[in-house]
């Protein structure tokens, strides 16, 4: 589904990613792990065209999308739930969702009705402002908005960050349901347990490149890799 070869990217003069490789397979969940500042968010931004790939290829089902505009990448069916959630605080929950439906394809599988059914908490908060939501509700709204784009690939950057354990559980259940429904996901996480429970495959980023690849079961069993690259 998603193949990245020899990606180089960064912020202007500051290069962060040097020769990163990544493979995400259709119908599976890939977790990208790595220490703080390893370049996980930077990689996500490069996939979405928010940062330029100064070298390398980013292919979606074989088509190189490096250099395309973010809008066009989203239209290819890639939805991004950023670490910052990026909901509109001055708009209501309903308005936040309606904005996403405008970009959705006509024959959408994820309709407003289905999304509200999936996140009943949001259906009770439709007329509340984005700024009135708890962190967990904001996260759910951000995921709901991404689903309304009817993505083939869902990118999630630290969906559990700053959330209470009970909310983390709820997010886990929702993402597990999406996985069971066949959604392909790439997940950046600091929460090792959350990530390895959900993911089939794991890539570890360190020193700006992919330093380890394997299954969740492999990395759970490999204490040396955890210690060296994650400080777990
Ligand atoms: P974290 O869990 O802390 O978000 P991460 O692996 O996602 O970690 P990135 O956010 O991708 O890390 O950051 C990678 C490197 O890029 C860090 O050294 C960071 O300081 C640097 N960086 C991030 N954003 C910018 C920016 N806007 N301008 C310059 N450097 C940046």
Automatic annotation (TrEMBL):
It comes from the Bacteria. Residues 2-232 form the ABC transporter domain. GO terms for biological process: L-amino acid transport. SMART domains: AAA. One of its GO terms (molecular function) is ATP binding. Belongs to the ABC transporter superfamily. This is ABC transporter ATP-binding protein. It comes from Georhizobium profundi.
């Amino acid at each position: 589904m998603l193949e990245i070869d020899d990606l180089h990217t960064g912020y202007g003069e500051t290069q962060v990613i040097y020769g990163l490789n990544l493979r995400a397979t259709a119908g599976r969940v890939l977790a990208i792990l790595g220490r703080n500042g390893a370049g996980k968010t930077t990689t996500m931004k490069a996939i979405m065209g928010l940062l330029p790939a100064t070298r390398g290829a980013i292919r979606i089902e074989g088509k190189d999308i490096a250099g395309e505009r973010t809008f066009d990448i989203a239209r290819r069916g890639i939805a991004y739930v950023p670490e910052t959630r990026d909901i509109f605080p001055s708009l209501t929950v309903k308005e936040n969702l309606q904005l996403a439906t405008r970009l959705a394809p006509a024959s959408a599988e994820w309709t407003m009705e289905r999304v509200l059914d999936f996140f009943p908490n949001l259906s009770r908060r439709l007329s509340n402002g984005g700024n009135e939501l708890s962190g967990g509700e904001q996260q759910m709204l951000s995921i709901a908005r991404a689903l309304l784009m009817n993505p083939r690939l869902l990118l999630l950057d630290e969906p559990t960050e700053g959330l209470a354990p009970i909310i983390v559980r709820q997010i886990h259940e929702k993402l597990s349901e999406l996985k069971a429904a066949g959604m392909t996901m790439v997940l950046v996480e600091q929460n090792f347990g959350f990530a390895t429970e959900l993911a089939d495959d794991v890539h570890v980023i360190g020193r700006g490149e992919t330093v380890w690849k394997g299954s969740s079961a492999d990395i759970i069993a490999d204490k040396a890799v955890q210690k060296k690259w994650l400080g777990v």
